Amino acid sequence: MSKYRRLRPPAPGFRKKSAADITAEILSESVRSGEDYREQSLRLHGMICAKCGREFGLRDRHLLTVHHKDGNRKNNPPDGSNWENLCVYCHEDEHGRGLLGDYLSGG
């Protein structure tokens, strides 16, 4: 007996999807589920870090992240009230403060 599983033939009516079809499907799902909040936040709050004030352009916008104020990354209201744009350094600092506080308090 082989250690490899035998693949089943595709179901009747199965249609192979192109890469473009799969990409479009993923993008439409992410927009519907609110996962595209980063672009919304950048549009609403501008490309500036809310903590240090550093401004970002098109070339370095990948260094700007979205921080969820309440800590729940699934809470994405369309008005952006739970988001703040932070550079990667300030975002790391924001999350590191909680870890350090827990450590120092013995938690």
**Overall shape:** extended
Radius of gyration: 21 Å
What fraction, in percent, of the residue positions are helical?
25-40%
Counted by DSSP, the helix tally is 3
* Major β-sheet strand ordering: 1-2
Counting DSSP E segments of at least 2 residues, the number of strands comes to 2
Spatial separation of the terminal alpha carbons? 52 Å
How much strand? 5-15%
Structural class: alpha+beta
* Biggest sheet descriptor: 2 strands, antiparallel
The ordered string of helix (H) and strand (E) elements is HHEEH
Q: Based on the structure, what is the oligomeric state of the protein chains?
A: single chain
Overall pLDDT metric: 83
Low-confidence stretches: none
Q: How are the SSEs placed, and which strands pair?
A:
Elements: H1 19-32, H2 37-45, E1 64-68, E2 83-87, H3 88-104
Antiparallel strand pairs: 1-2
Question: What key phrases describe this protein's structure?
Answer:
extended; alpha+beta; about 110 residues; 2 strands; about 10% strand; two-stranded antiparallel sheet
In short:
It is built from 3 helices and 2 strands; from the N terminus they run ααββα.
Question: Could you describe the 3D structure shown?
Answer:
The protein is an alpha+beta fold and 107 residues long. It has a domain at 35-104. The chain has 3 helices and 2 strands, in the order ααββα. It has helices at 19-32, 37-45, 88-104, and strands at 64-68, 83-87. It has a two-stranded antiparallel ribbon. It starts with 18 loop residues before the first helix and ends with a helix. The model has no long low-confidence stretch (mean pLDDT 83).
